[in-house]
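Lab notebook, bench 4. The sequencing result for the construct came back, and we need a structural model before the next group meeting so we can plan mutations. Quick request posted to the team channel:

Model the 3D structure of this chain.
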Amino acid sequence: MVTRTPVVIIGAGPYGLSLAAHLAARNFEHRIFGTPMRFWLNVAAAGSRRYLKSYCFGTNLSTPKPGFAFADYNSPRQLETFEPCSISNFAEYGQWFQENNVPWVEPIDVVTVDRQGDGFALKLANDAQLLASRVVIATGLSDFAYTPSALGSLSSQLCTHTAKVTSFESFRGQDVAVIGGGQSALEAAALLHEAGARPQLLVREESVLWQTRVMKERSLWRKIRSPITGLGTGPKAWALTRFPGGMHRLPASWRTRFVRNHLPAEGAWWLRERVEKIVPIHCNTAIVTAAEQGSRLALRLRESKTGSERTIRVDHVIAGSGYLVDVERMSVLAPDLRARIQRLEAAPRLNKAFESSVPGLHVIGPASAMSFGPLFRFVVGAEYTAETITAHLASTGVRAA
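Done. Here's the predicted structure in token form:
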């Protein structure tokens, strides 16, 4: 039997859970699918001493009910409420939030979404089928891990993206090249060293950038000049968090350029002592080719300033090369449905209600950043997103339960 529901949320991470909590508060009928906080639980399980780069107060899941901020969970447990907060702690907070606010989550994956009439047909991993008037894609970064083209032909036994590492301990005793100079690459290098591997960092830039620690207690002048926000410090961060929908009103060409360039690749202050003078760092270095040699890899490297090349041999390469939002990689959507989605570069073009060019199909979380700005790459954007979509559904007459 095929059932019908007005709204289906695909993904039970911070954005999906926040939206479900807001919909429930307004009695909107909906269903939400996915393992709660799966991405974060997997990241935490891969290695200990992994921390959020964001402030605790800027990493809240959202519900209209008071008492469910990250600090509300941490304070009674004598856990960090400013920074750094552990990722395992954040994952546990998200599970606590879900149990208390969205206990109706169905921990099963949606396999396929396709257009059917003026709605959508969905197939679940257990072969069940359902129809929905609206679908909200809240799958986070799961589909968007980016690996440089020079590594594209390598098997998963020899090349892994940082998001796909299941255990840093499994690399004990191995020579591992880590690609990238941002937080994920730097953290991977630290975790590999601490697990007994022999990592080395290959960085395209001239140097590794490190954040400066911001003290919680500061002078009034310092607070005015460089306010602390959920997106970091400074006037830009203040404006982005204060007016979360503002960037959507700007010309798309200007906004997409700003999103690409905002926040350079850099490491958190608390990670620096675990990397510098411990892990070999090769700056101005890019991989030209990567070839399998038996059970190992030969990486041909080029030094950008001199043009000189050399070859190193390693057991594995880990890509800390970030994420690239691309509609074509949104695997849950059927090919014909993906083809109907208008793009901003490769990302979905969304209206002010986070709705794509396919009526009734909404996309939230990091995949919405090209349309709404860099705030939405982070958990801090979940509240505005949930409030906006809930208000939009109310205005369009979606029925309440």
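The CA atoms of residues 82 and 120 lie 42 Å apart.
Will bring this to the meeting.
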